[in-house]
Amino acid sequence: MTDAGRLDDPGRLDAIVRTGLGPKADPMFDRFTAMVRHVLHVPVALVSLVDDRRQVFPGADGLGEPWMTQRQTPLTHSFCQHVVVSAQPLVITDARTDPRVAGNLAITDLSVVGYAGMPLTDADGRVLGSLCAIDTEPRQWTTTELDLLADLALACSDSLRLRIASRAADRREHVAGVNLDRTRLLLRASVALAGTSTVDDVTEAVRKLVVGTLDPDYVGISLFDAAGRISLRSGDSLPAGVARRWHRYGRTALTPSALAAVTGIPVLLPDLAAVHALVPDAAATFREMGWQSGASVPLPGPNGPIGALTFVWKQPYALDALDQAVLAALGGYVGQAVQRADYLYSRERVAELLQQALLSDLPPVGPLELAARYEPAARGEHVGGDWYDAVRVAPDHLALAVGDVTGHDMRAAAQMGQLRSMLRAFVVDRREPPSAVLGRLADAMQLLGDTTPATAILAYVHSDDAGHRLEWSNAGHPAPLLLEPDGTVSTLTGHNILLGVQGTWPRTDHTRALPPGSTVLFYTDGLVETRTTAIDERKRQLREALSPLSAAPLPDLLTAVFTHLAGHDHEDDVALLALRVPPA
């Protein structure tokens, strides 16, 4: 017996698998058996493929039940195995007396007596099975009949080879498609992750990227915290109890994320057996969530892994080499995105602390009330040139200021800090009208070479037995609004040229008595300027929003005004300062 004729030859068995044929009717091979029955006038014809355990009949005609339905038999019922082993035709006149097959159960169970089988081969000449004609009576096969059967077997072999080649082409096309999908995934990842600014953004981007490709049931990102523990940064998509359990834990825990992050090696969990063997600390969570497989890859950082990217599935999933390569590459992209997000977060925190340091706390001003609010632009460095200030110069003299230096970045914040400090110094230096103070500020800016455009309004609240009076001067700033107790809103008009303009310009003062219970709202242009709505319409909307708030606590008033006019996605910095006069 040659290797090619062994039933358990690996190449031969692989070729059978590559036909895609099994114990199921195939129209093409059923036609071959129909032709054999018609040409040779036999009651049964089969296309039989023989592996090392059984034979299957993708083509069958005339076979009795239950075999016709089952389309397979064990080798105890196979004459065709002799065709495979010998790689030669097998011709039997009466199986009951032929020593080669006399003990075969096909004689009694399938009524096989006369048999003629021709080899069916693949492109490499390996015998995969036989095309056979069967008679239930002894049969003396003629040379013409055997020649016809051999010709049909050659045609049937060609069909088998075509089937193998076609499936191989389909497989190559499928692999090419998968490769293309994975390549597109990585290309999309490089673009999508470049636009992220928080770890939550990164997690959501990855979830969207893998839809239609890897299709995990959960995507997780875990990072080392400052103490070296594992911190889950994607718990929002998990049940609260599971998220709390893995919110932060030790690096020695045997979980997919910890193992990948600590070792720097991908952790592949194709089934629950692997989960229990490699990451037993996570087994209970897998069981609770209905997960059956998973994979974690380390997120590379400048000094080693910074965490892990984890996928899990609710069915067994063995990642092939391509999937593993894609997951590793995706981990690299995610690592870069997470580091960038952490850098941006740190920068934003520094900017916010700087902004808070530049905006002083409001002084006690009883019986008057003060409230302020600063909101950086929704996009950018979370710091800018908008500012407010309040200085109690004397018991009866309160100075209020609101301003805006062009820009909403670190540079604008630094320039704002300089202007605010100079204005504060000028206010406490001597008693003089607001216009004179703004004039001195403008002169100082010119002397220092600061030509950055800036707006500001400086107002004094004078208090005496007669009541409260507002005196102000406006350097190109949006006019404040006066809200009276009955809801009437009026604009405190009058303004002069902004700061930072070369030359000496006239500046004027304006005064207005403040009725008991009235409120003055100072604001910067970020509250009312948008790209889509005219400024006059926005100012009308502001007056309309302010009108019903005369009795609202000042912090609530500022929140309501900001939410109504600017909202979550505002484009510019916003500073608000509100003053309320006590009721009569």
UniProtKB/TrEMBL annotation:
SUPFAM superfamilies in the cross-refs: GAF domain-like, PP2C-like
Keyword Cell wall biogenesis/degradation in annotation: no
Stretches assigned to the PPM-type phosphatase domain: 365-581
GO molecular function: phosphatase activity
Keywords from the named record: Hydrolase
Domain GAF positions: 24-170, 198-348
Coiled-coil parts of chain: none
Protein name: GAF domain-containing protein
Lineage, top ranks: Bacteria, Bacillati, Actinomycetota, Actinomycetes, Micromonosporales
